[in-house]
Amino acid sequence: METATATDEEIVVRRANITDIDFALPITAEMEASAKARGTGISKRNPEDIRKKILEGKAVIAFTKSGIWAGFSYIQTWDNNSYVSNSGLIVAPAFRRLKVASAIKQKIFELSRMMYPAAKIFSITTGLAVMKLNTRLGFEPVTYNEITHDPQFWSACKSCVNYPVLAAKGFKNCLCTAMLFTPELA
Questions:
Q1: Cα-based distances in Å from 148 to 22, 31, 46, 167
Q2: Are strands 83-91 and 140-142 parallel, antiparallel or unpaired?
Q3: 95, 71 Cβ separation under 8 angstroms
Q4: How confident is the model at residue 154, as a pLDDT?
Q5: SS3 state at 144
Q6: In what order do the strands lie in the sheet with 2-5?
Q7: What phi and psi values does residue 83 have, to the nearest 5 degrees?
Q8: Among 25, 59, 65, 77, which has the highest number of CB atoms less than 10 A from its own CB?
């Protein structure tokens, strides 16, 4: 288990499990509120989809020792497990700037590598902080041509404020930066 220190209470970052499904609603609510507050393009998530990721063991959650939710991220596979997206990274406002995002990003990356060691891992973001976290993990900026072409991936972007830009450009580029980690295979 990885930890990050908050101002007054330790933060635990671990693989999510069935005991965490009640966090799905606050997670999706914060994703939406955060996107609106920043005016950035975070696609809206359904709480049921978040619950599913938790039950599948494809999510990482952060919370205080006393049970206050602090952050979350999940993985999704594409193209017959050839690609894994690290998605939905969100940190509750009270826990931002405390390295919680870094701990979550590290843990979701490790989970992706453990579950899908041969898959290419990608992330799309408009945030410089996430770009820096990805770079530290070995991700490189790439064109959209180098990540999944699965229409279902791109349809998840429909609730993003930048979707008209993405669609107008034929799903070849947008305001998000695509970043890719390519595993070294023996």
A1: 31, 23, 21, 16
A2: unpaired
A3: yes
A4: 83
A5: helix
A6: 2-5, 10-15, 59-64, 69-78, 83-91, 120-125, 177-181, 140-142
A7: -125, 145
A8: 59
Positive or negative torsion for Cα 113, 130, 127, 160: positive
Cα 53 to Cα 23, 91, 102: the distances in Å are: 12, 17, 20
**Residue 165, amino acid:** V
Q: What is the pTM of this model?
A: 0.86
Of 101, 95, 153, the residue nearest 122 (C-alpha): 153
Contact 160, 175 (CB under 8 A): no
Could you tell me the two tokens for 178? 């695509």
Go through 94-108 and write b for each residue having 16 or more CB atoms within 10 A of its CB, e for each that does not.
ebeebbbbbbbbbbb
Token pair listed for 15: 């693989």
Residue 177: phi, psi to the nearest 5? Answer: -95, 130
**pLDDT tens sequence across 127-164:** 888 899 999 999 999 999 999 988 888 887 787 778 88
What is the Cα–Cα distance from 17 to 56, expressed in whole angstroms?
8
How far apart are alpha carbons 126 and 2 in whole angstroms? 26
Q: Are 76 and 111 in contact (CB under 8 A)?
A: no
Q: What is the DSSP string of 69-98?
A: EEEEEEEEEETTTTEEEEEEEEE-GGGTTT
